[in-house]
């Protein structure tokens, strides 16, 4: 079977969307996209049209792989933001061809570290990535929970709101997190730093709020929540209240690709937040 590759910049929009939706048909979570949602994601998460590609069998788009590249900690890093193969082409070596092609791109671009995430239950994909030199470095979860605060919280904790770009310049900011949790991927995001009464840093949060048509916060997506103090109810309640900014209104919270080893995530799980998805983070050190 002859498979040819085209950069997204060389493809028709309808072929790109068909490759994506067919590639993730029957996937563990539903990620069907329209042209608007696909290109919105490409822009927001810093993915590259020129370094991402569609696989064709003749004129038929049968698979897709999307990529992004950034420099972190002085190293050029790549992220595989999605690899999908149409159902009738699975198990026929197309995934292997996709990985061979993407590693050629990484070598050409001088990539030092390549990363991706895979659904924990997707053992077939994980085996494939391991064959190409990727190793599991962390377990990640997506959590969902709701909170409603009847009154404004009375606390000695001080809150300072800053831009995500400013947060990234702080010495305590964690740069080595999954791609979607890095500040560069959080367009329209916000961040807050929390201090005690003696101005000691307690924690920070990188998040994005989603608003209703009535001007109320409906949902808060948490990308980073890092504590530098002993975890306790007061600080966690203060964070959730502060990032929602709502009194007397139930708000949904979601964490994205948070490490299972993070004490704040463990606290949320122990206090009513439900795990919706678990992934493994995988990394390949390029030679």
Label the CATH architecture of the largest domain. Answer: 3-Layer(aba) Sandwich
CATH topological fold name of the largest domain:
Aminopeptidase
Count of extended strands: 12
Count of discrete domains: 2
Protein name: GNAT family N-acetyltransferase
Keywords: Acyltransferase, Transferase
GO molecular function, one term: acyltransferase activity, transferring groups other than amino-acyl groups
Organism: Neobacillus thermocopriae
Describe this structure in words.
The protein has 287 residues and is of the alpha+beta class. The protein folds into two domains: 108 residues, Gcn5-related N-acetyltransferase (GNAT) (Aminopeptidase); 136 residues, Aminopeptidase (3-Layer(aba) Sandwich), CATH 3.40.630. It has seven helices and twelve strands. A twelve-stranded mixed beta sheet has the order 1-2-3-4-5-12-6-11-10-9-8-7, with helices on both faces. α6 links the parallel β10 and β11. It is elongated, with a radius of gyration of 20 Å. The two termini are 30 Å apart.
Q: Can you give me a brief rundown of this structure?
A:
By secondary structure, this protein is an alpha+beta fold. The chain has helices at residues 13-23, 35-44, 94-109, 123-131, 164-167, 233-244, 263-270, and strands spanning 4-7, 48-57, 60-72, 75-85, 113-119, 135-147, 158-162, 190-195, 201-211, 217-227, 251-259, 274-285. The chain folds into two domains: 4-111, Aminopeptidase (3-Layer(aba) Sandwich), CATH 3.40.630.30; 143-278, Aminopeptidase (3-Layer(aba) Sandwich), CATH 3.40.630.
